[in-house]
Each structure stands twice: as structure tokens, then as C-alpha cells.
Write a structure and sequence with these properties.
The protein has helices at residues 3-8, 22-40, 63-74, 95-104, 119-126, 143-157, 175-186, 197-200, 215-219, 243-250, 254-257, 290-295, 297-312; strands at residues 52-57, 78-82, 107-114, 131-137, 164-168, 190-194, 209-211, 224-227, 265-267. It has 315 residues and is α/β, with parallel strands linked by helices. The longest helix is centred in the N-terminal third of the chain and has 19 residues, at 22-40.
């Protein structure tokens, strides 16, 4: 790996992107691009050889889990996949006791997804030898999704500096939205949130972020639009419209996207409720970057794992 990227990174854990400088964000994205090319050429380094990586997913996941597993294996790591339902968790073992067991058996990196916001922070404070990678905690953060979103947009737009990115939907319950806000703003974009007031108004006043509940107004001049999944399992509180009203007012269609700049890009972190957040035909529209987001998952997670492995050698 390029020495500049190695010297830029000094983090022991990756808990969110809010703690990363612009230089650190760009280092991860640049390294992801390099590793993507080396993966395509089948010239990947074995920078994780001899390391044991544990996957501890306390919530369902397809994209994040598979991409982390592939990233770790292809860099030479031994991967231990904790089956929560078949482990001592089912007998009542606490999160920290389970992670300490992984650590004591030789796991040096733990990829953790948990329904409780803040769980990775507790884990990072509790473990002595293992690095923690947050793979999504409650409604708080999803750092590697934000990194792959930023890479996807940077490549589509050429640069995020001065770009207008509209995020539409259930921001209040979205860990992706929070991490995207931090990453996109720090990389120079201006972000507009649009959706039902109860889901977007809590973000009014964030630096670099504006709230515009009227979708047509929000989309005016947009260079890219990110649709968020309506999280029915987390949606709660007053002021939230019926699903039908949501689809009518904020569901993205080709007609509504005409309000954005010509050729504006469309993204969705998945899994998408087609016909709700986005019309089914938009998933395969030429403006859709949804497939590219998934493709960038493995190289971005390779980059993060590699940087943490280098830093681990300095402990």
C-alpha cells in the first residue's frame, strides 16, 4: 500500500466517520480504488495473513456481512462467523462477555452489527487487544456504508466539492443517513434532507445540511439523490404519514426526478422497498448507482481492514 495512506491513518477502531478528517476519508477512498483494481487483476496483497477476524452480526445483513467476509478472506485473514442464534448469546451471555471470548481465542478484529446504538463504543472500551469495526449500530451509524457511498458519488460526479446531494426519507431512524451526512459534508458537498417533518426536522441546524420537506423544491438543482429505506420496523412517533401518503409525496419516480439536474444520479443503500422509496423501474435506470454501491462494498471494507491492520502493528 502507498506509504501516504498508511501514515495518514492512526485509528485503532472504526466506530463512525464523524471522527475522521477529510484526509483520512480520502485515504480510505483512494486505497479502496487501488484495492479494487488489484482485486480485478488478482494481485491482492495478503496484508491480513495470520490475523483472525470475527463477524458478530446481532442483526440480519446481506450486503455488509458478505462484503466484510469476502474482504477479510481475500486479504488472507482467517474469518470466524459468530452464529448468534447458535452461540452462548442464546443462553443469555452478554455482548461484552461474548466479544471477550472471541478476543481470548485469538480474534484481533471484530466486525460488529448490533441493534443498540453505541454498542461498538462499549465494545471498543471493553476489549484490550481486538479492533472494533462498526457494521451498523441501532439508528446511530454505519461508517463503511457512508464510505462506499462517498466513493460511488465521488467517481460519478468527479468530485464532491460543491455538489448538491438530496437525501430523501426516514433520516430519523437511519444510521446510514447520519454517517452519510458526516462524510459528504466533510468532503465538500451540501446536503439537503427531504421527507416527512418528523423524520427530517431533527437535523435542522446541522452544519452543511438543510431541511426542505417539499420534495420538488428539494430536488431542484440536485446533482445526486439518495433514497432511504422506510424502516417500518423502526418507524415510530407522531407526524408520520400513512405509507400511501409517503409514496405520493416522497416516493421517487422518473417524473419527480426531472426536477433534479439533467443526469442526476440515484442511490439507495438497500434493501429497497420498490414502489415505496423508489419506483421499481428506477433500480435499473441508467442514472441508478445502486449496483455500483454494492460493488464498492468489498474494496472499501478491504481498505478499512488493511488500515486497521497496519495500525495494529503499532500497538
Amino acid at each position: 500500500m502507498t506509504a501516504t495512506w498508511i501514515s495518514t491513518w492512526t485509528r485503532r477502531h472504526l466506530l463512525d466517520v464523524d471522527e475522521l478528517s477529510r484526509a483520512e476519508l480520502e485515504a480510505v477512498l483512494d486505497l479502496g480504488v487501488e484495492l479494487r483494481g488489484r482485486r480485478a487483476a488478482r494481485e491482492l496483497p495478503d496484508s491480513l495473513r495470520g490475523l483472525a477476524v470475527g463477524l458478530a452480526f446481532y442483526e440480519p445483513s446481506t450486503r455488509t456481512r458478505v462484503s466484510f467476509e469476502l474482504a477479510a478472506r481475500e486479504l488472507g485473514a482467517t474469518v470466524t462467523d459468530l452464529s448468534v442464534a447458535g452461540s452462548s448469546v442464546a443462553k443469555g451471555e452478554s455482548l461484552i462477555d461474548t466479544l471477550r471470548t472471541l478476543e481470548r481465542t485469538g480474534v484481533r478484529m471484530v466486525v460488529l452489527r448490533h441493534a443498540a446504538s453505541g454498542a461498538p463504543y462499549l465494545a471498543a472500551r471493553s476489549l484490550e487487544r481486538a479492533a472494533i469495526l462498526n457494521a451498523g449500530d441501532g439508528t446511530h451509524a454505519h461508517p463503511t456504508q457512508a464510505l462506499l457511498d462517498a466513493l460511488t458519488l465521488r467517481e460519478a460526479l468527479g468530485s464532491l466539492e460543491g455538489a448538491r446531494v438530496v437525501i430523501v426519507g426516514d433520516a430519523a431512524h437511519s444510521r446510514v443517513a447520519r454517517s452519510d451526512l458526516h462524510a459528504l459534508v466533510r468532503l465538500g458537498a451540501s446536503v439537503v434532507l427531504s421527507g416527512p417533518p418528523a423524520w427530517v426536522n431533527p437535523f435542522a441546524g446541522w452544519p452543511g445540511v438543510s431541511v426542505v420537506t417539499d420534495l420538488a423544491t428539494a430536488l431542484s438543482g440536485a446533482d445526486a439523490v439518495v433514497a432511504l429505506r422506510v424502516q417500518r420496523e423502526r418507524a415510530a412517533g407522531s407526524g408520520v404519514p400513512s405509507l400511501g401518503e409517503y409514496v405520493s409525496r416522497w416516493g421517487l419516480t422518473a417524473e419527480k426526478l426531472e426536477r433534479a439536474c439533467p443526469g442526476a444520479w440515484l442511490m439507495h443503500p438497500g434493501p429497497a422497498n420498490e414502489g415505496v422509496e423508489i419506483a421499481a423501474e428506477l433500480s435499473t435506470d441508467p442514472r441508478s448507482l445502486i449496483g455500483r454501491q454494492v460493488e464498492n462494498g468489498v474494496p472499501i471494507r478491504m481498505a478499512v481492514l488493511s488500515l486497521l491492520a497496519v495500525e495494529m502493528d503499532r500497538w
